[in-house]
Amino acid sequence: MRFTKEYPQHRVNRQRRTIYILPLGPFPPGHAGQSTAAAAAGASTSAGETEAGSSSSDRGATGGAEGGACPSSRTDKVLLSWLQKFCQCFFLGVDVKFLDPVRVREVQCKTRINEHTKQWQLLSKDILDYLVSKKPRDAICLVAVTMLDLYPSDSWNFVFGQASLVTGCGVFSFARYDENFYYIPRDRQKAKKSELEEFNMPPVTSVLLLRACKVMTHELCHMFGMKHCIYFSCCINGSNSRDESDRRPVDLCPICLRKLQEAVDFRLAVRFRAMLEYCTKESWDSGVPAPPLEAFESFKTWLEKVLVFLEEPPVAGSEESSQASN
Ligand SMILES: [Zn+2]
Ligand SMILES: [Zn+2]
């Protein structure tokens, strides 16, 4: 069965060709429209299913190479641009737009302080209900991103994210990909709900950006109707911890890439070329400063190899060229 026949509602068409992303919750003052912090987490699945959340056992793990940290005042403004551009390369041909951010109080979701981490959490189910009313007509999907931690129901410790394929809405949190998530000492006796509207954004390292890009594309693939990959190492493999998420590759395996191509309709080489440009500092113009790309280095090397293979002219004597000469 062809993938888009299985999930025809997820095929991009003339009326529906934009991915909308809604920043939710606290962002640094003055940059609320353009900032999302740190890294990513992740999960969402088919129809209301949640993936995720073990207990506090996945703490630790710094996730490899330390990228150059950017001054936070600058990253406030550009992080979402970096994420947006990456998504545009990954889903080549689809528009990716960020909506104006909303405050937690506007969403009116249930909240709590997690008993293990002592951090605020938002009830993801309530956020999904809110998003349905906000989904633009031309949206393929609408996903909220937040720096606050999420939980799907009272009995769960946390969830990286949650999505509904039926409504095309999802929410996911970058909170647990921030290196400081478990370590910020906080006096919870003084915790006030107003904290939900204030947040100090951590500096964005290359590792953090890579994680954020990976989780965004993973979640958005779900919104295109793709389920967790069980075939190869793939960016849409399931994961229950940050370590596991870090081990996932940046891109899709060949089977899942073909599924996405069915839904989005791009040329492979053009898409790989766009991603290679993303990973190449010199290709960024002065309009948007280049992100810290150290953590993207191995992905870049892989892309270069793939493109050599895809763009190589047929070798003389190969089946194609011998047919041509006949
Ligand atoms: Zn997933
Ligand atoms: Zn796959």
UniProtKB/TrEMBL annotation:
Which Pfam families does the entry mention?
Peptidase_M54
Looking at the record, which segments are called Disordered? Answer: 32-71
What CDD domains does UniProt report for this protein, alphabetically?
Peptidase_M54 (cd11375)
Regions of compositional bias (Low complexity) in chain numbering: 35-57
Q: Which cofactor does it need?
A: Zn(2+)
Question: Per its record, what are the GO molecular function terms?
Answer: metal ion binding; metallopeptidase activity
Annotated keywords? Hydrolase, Metal-binding, Metalloprotease, Protease, Zinc
Q: Name one GO biological process term.
A: proteolysis
Cross-referenced PANTHER family = ARCHAEMETZINCIN, ARCHAEMETZINCIN-2
What is the name listed in the Swiss-Prot or TrEMBL entry for this protein?
AMZ2 protein
Gene name of the record? AMZ2
